[in-house]
């Protein structure tokens, strides 16, 4: 997770962490991890939306059958 406090503690407020290249490297790794986490969440949400759409289609079909008699 990209956490500003952790970045400040580990890369800004330390003598050995003040190198801009090290900070860029650490941020790149953090962003890659955040992207992977978001991708997993997006996939789960996508499945949820798909199931919801199918359920809605079944419900509309049931309404049409009920209305048609």
Would you write up a description of this structure?
With 69 residues, the chain is mainly alpha-helical. The protein has one domain. The chain is built from two helices and no strands.
Structure keywords:
69 residues; mainly alpha; 2 helices; 84% helix; rod-shaped
Large-scale geometry: rod-shaped
Mean pLDDT: 88
Q: Note the beta-strand portion.
A: under 5%
Poorly predicted spans = none
Q: For this entry, what is the oligomeric state of its chains? A: single chain
What is the helix fraction of residues, given as a range?
over 70%
Total E-strand runs: 0
Total number of distinct structural domains: 1
- Rg, Å, rounded: 24 Å
Q: So how many helices?
A: 2
Instruction: Give the H and E element order.
Output: HH
Q: How far apart lie the N and C ends? A: 55 Å
Helix and strand composition category: mainly alpha
Main sheet specs: none
Please specify the SSE layout and strand pairing:
Layout: H1 4-12, H2 20-68
How do you describe this structure in short?
The protein has helices at residues 4-12, 20-68.
